[in-house]
Amino acid sequence: MSDIQPPLDQDLVRLFDDAQSTLPSEAFVERFERRMARSMRIRLALQAVGLALLAAVVWITAPYAIRGSLALSSSATEGLSDLGLAMGSPVGWVCSMLAGAWVLRRYHVFDR
After folding, report:
1. CB 86 within 8 A of CB 96
2. Label partner for 64 (CA 20 to 30 A): which of 73, 80, 89, 103?
3. Distance between CA 98 and CA 91 in Å, rounded?
4. What is the pTM of this model?
């Protein structure tokens, strides 16, 4: 590298000098901070209202959801007990053996 510096481009220097701008006034900064704080408060309030609405919807629909899940579990339990009785019979044994063979064939166990 040489110690000789290339000459400065006068047009570029002039453009940089023209582009200098002053910092915004303190009144602008204060107004901006107030506006930001206000928008943050509004957003927090909207989030709180949304959470309250969600809690109200859950509170209203919870009894129906609980009642429905109890009815579904009751019918599923009755169906599973019937399935257990069916699997204990000779026909159930044959069906389960056929289902097991189908699964083994599906996963290509017999191809090896």
Report:
1. no
2. 80
3. 11
4. 0.46
Secondary-structure breakdown of the chain: helix, strand, coil percentages, each rounded to the nearest 5: 80, 0, 20
Kindly report the backbone phi and psi dihedral angles of residue 23, in degrees, each rounded to the nearest multiple of 5, phi listed first: -70, 155
Quick: pLDDT tens for 22-73. 767 888 889 999 999 999 999 999 999 999 999 999 999 999 999 999 998 8
Tokens 């919807």 -> residue = 57
Look up residue 109 and give its two tokens.
């166990």
Helix (H, G, I), strand (E, B) or coil at 8: coil
Cα–Cα distance measured from residue 76 to residue 68, given in angstroms and rounded to the nearest whole number: 12
Residue 97 tokens, joined: 């053996």
DSSP tally for the chain: helices H, then strands E: 3, 0
